[in-house]
Amino acid sequence: MSQSRLSLALDAPAALPPEGRIALFRPTAETDLSALPKARLHVLQGFRPDHDALRARGFEVSAEGQGAYAAAVVFVPRAKAEARALLAAACEAVLPGGPVFVDGQKTDGIDSILKDLRARIAVTDPIAKAHGKIFSFTAAPGALAGWEAQPITPAPGFTTRPGVFSAEGVDRGSALLAACLPEHLPARVVDLGAGWGWLSAQILARPGVERLDLVEAEAAALECARQNVTDPRAVFHWADARAFAPDPRPLCVVMNPPFHTTRAADPALGAAFIRAAAGMLSLSGSLWMVANRHLPYEAVLRERFHEVTEITPPSGRDGAFRIFHAARPIAHAAKTPAAPAAEPAKPRRVVRARR
Fold first, then answer.
1. Strand, coil or helix: 56
2. E strand or H helix that includes residue 5
3. How far is CA 11 from CA 6, 14, 74, 84, in A?
4. Where is the composition biased (Low complexity) (predicted)?
């Protein structure tokens, strides 16, 4: 079995201090950590699905760091501002003189990060393998000053941070969805994949809402939402939206679901959100959602709801996004379908309406 970049880097003499905790910044559920001493590891992962998967593998996992560390490994994320913030945090969290390893793919910008670090501090020669690189530097207080995560103001009254989805401004899909929501909403609503809370604030501005559950898998985004949405009707959940099971069932779900976890689009992710929404709603409930026009969600909606309507935004048909209103979830749709009837049922169709 070939060695990973990390195992090759750790083969160097005295690569790690002989004792002390080791912080791992943002490894995913699939990251190979077998080269590291498991009992000394503290995994820092705020994305709930990865957090839970790593914990199930027996690692100590938290959303944020706790105390000082003897060493660290930073798994570089795609967003450069987030990567810089993680490196600055690692540089401060590791005891002076301890190693900070930096591992990443070329497609996630590891070459750019290496160039930027070399302009600030001394780094080891990188090891290149499997379309990525790993190298290390020595932690020193203030060495990466200015790279710390800085608050961002994407809209008046809202704050975000690097790495959060649409951190620089309101997502256009969310804005279109908000414009299509009805004037009145039911008493209990769920914002599935609430992000930093802008869409939740628009929901709470509608008459009729008595409770809004904000469900978000990314801990950093949810913390932003807590700051942005201070309405006492808001209840916050750090959870995987695909497994969220509210009790009692809500009458309405609103969502702008993600459609990728890597650079490639993954329609299965949005489909899982649709199935989760249908599964949590009351049988008289409804779903309001926005999706990229090219994603094949109509069939999933028709499988899960009796009524599916495409809504034209007040500004007119949008070339990139589609707004759907799906009503009356189909009971037991998640179960294995029964044998076909003698005469096939007529297919449901998506109808279009203008608001």
1. helix
2. helix 5-10
3. 9, 8, 18, 26
4. 334-344
- Taking the C-alpha atoms of residue 297 and residue 272, their distance in angstroms, rounded to an integer, is 10
Q: What is the pTM of this model?
A: 0.90
Q: Which amino acid, one-letter code, is at 182?
A: P
- The overall longest dimension of the chain from CA atoms, in Å, is 75
Place of tokens 């908000």: 178
In total, the chain counts a number of residues equal to 355
Could you give the CA distance from residue 170 to residue 155 in angstroms, rounded to a whole number? 7
Tokens of 46: 């705020």
Hey, what domains does the chain have and what are their CATH numbers? 5-138 (3.40.50.150), 172-354 (3.40.50.150)
Q: What tens digit of pLDDT does each residue of 233-282 get?
A: 999 999 999 999 999 999 999 999 987 554 556 789 999 999 999 999 99
Two tokens at 11? 């083969």
Burial class from Cβ neighbours inside 10 Å (0-12, 13-18, 19+) for residue 341 reads exposed
In whole angstroms, give the CA distance from residue 331 to residue 334.
Answer: 8
DSSP assignment of 220-232: HHHHHHHHH---T
pLDDT, residue 338, reads 36
Looking at residue 60, its amino acid is E
3-class secondary structure, 24? strand
Q: Beta partners for 55?
A: none
Nearest CA to 41 out of 115, 122, 101 is that of: 101
319/317 Cα distance (integer angstroms): 7
Across the beta sheet with 127-129, what order do the strands follow? 61-62, 41-44, 22-25, 71-75, 99-105, 132-138, 127-129
Cβ 110 vs Cβ 132: under 8 Å: yes
Question: Strand 321-329 vs strand 286-292: parallel, antiparallel, or unpaired?
Answer: antiparallel
Instruction: Write down the residue that tokens 């990060």 correspond to.
Output: 113
Distance (Å, rounded) from C-alpha 104 to C-alpha 267?
A: 25
> How many helices (H) and strands (E) in the chain?
9, 15
Whole-angstrom distance, CA of residue 101 vs CA of residue 192: 35
